[in-house]
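Lesson 9: reading folded outputs for more than one chain in a single document. The general rule is that every protein is listed as its sequence immediately followed by its structure tokens, and records are never interleaved. Here is the first one.
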Amino acid sequence: MGMNGVLQAVLWSIFLAFPSYGVIAVAQVVIGLCSGGSQPAFAALLGSTYGRDAFAMALGLASMLMLPFTFAAAPVAGAIFDATGAYTSAFLLQVGCFVAGAAILLIGFRRHPR
């Protein structure tokens, strides 16, 4: 999961360089693969951390915690665009969130290897 966050940060950073359409398309495909691959990895991480008996509760609580961020992301990006006239700050915020999440996961994994 930590490495997925690092890769996502790199891929979202590509948009800050205003690349060509082909580069954007490839980056979006890889972002989609990372996002789709993060779901089973996240479930496995929860399962290994909290165990079989608490898995459903952990997944439910994690989903409830993530829900506001999921629904707020697009309106916040739109508000940033309306305020600044560009998506640069929104992309930087996205990259920053991925970097922070990756750091938390990679440091946590380093302290508690399985």
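And here is the second record, again sequence then tokens.
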Amino acid sequence: MRSVAVGPNFDPGMAAPLSDRLIVADLTSLHDAHPENNDSFSGHHSDIFHTEIYKLLAAFFFGS
């Protein structure tokens, strides 16, 4: 298992290679950078729309 911190301007190249079968992504700093997601109607389930999450997933599935 591997742990990766994902925050604003996440660069998957710095965390490469992301080839482990299980990766734990710590999104704490990404949450802190987007306090607008703390309202009761959105929550952090909308994190998937952040560019950093797309970069993390692309690096995991396709390599960085």
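What the second record shows: Strands lie at 2-5, 23-26.
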